[in-house]
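ESCALATION

Customer reports they have been waiting on this structure for their group meeting. Please prioritize. Original submission:
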Amino acid sequence: MNLLTQNISDFFSLFFPEVCAGCGCSLVSNEEEICTGCLVNLPYTNFHLIPDNSVARQFWGRVPFTFCGAFLYFSKGTKVQNLLHQLKYNNRPDVGTKLGIAYGKQLLESSSIVLPDIIVPVPLHPKRQKKRGYNQSESFAQGLSQSLNIPVNTSCLQRGTFTATQTKKSRFLRFENMKDVFTLSYGETLQGKHILLVDDIITTGATIEACAHPILKVSGTTISIAGIAYTG
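Update from on-call: job pushed to the front of the queue and completed.
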């Protein structure tokens, strides 16, 4: 950025300051999307260092996986909730990408993680994606892709049924709601591949499980699982 461009940017920032998606404070020079204070103090799970972690236990006996984890702990009324609200409802896919980049860097630091061949985000129904304008899980996947240098595939997995929000459903109803929701196309492109399935929030794991089943029917596939946040 040249001096003139910097001066113009600084002038506009006086009247239209960019604010942190986590805490709402003004961002300073060289900060983007999330301020340094939030990035330092977010509730990181460090599940990439703990094979027997809480997310992994969610899928024991349900989905065979290579790695399972989530980047952050989710609690209501916190900066993590603010970040996810901005990501999903305030047209901020850049927040998901930022978090994906940061999580990818964490995964690279762990010698125990077997890196996948392909990243597959949990798809939205086309109607919901058209209304929102983007898929928040895909933005997270794109951030992971930048850090891990692994491609994202958004064409193989589709959501064929429009499902109501899962937020207020019981564990049983979440599983019932997700039965046979996802279908797979171009399965041959996944043969023999290690796929990282990514979602925004992992609660019961019903959505991820529903995505994993058609993928695991493809010869030689293995699954890893990652979320932006875990609600446990």
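Sent to customer with the following note: Confidence is low (pLDDT under 50) at residues 3-15.
Escalation resolved.
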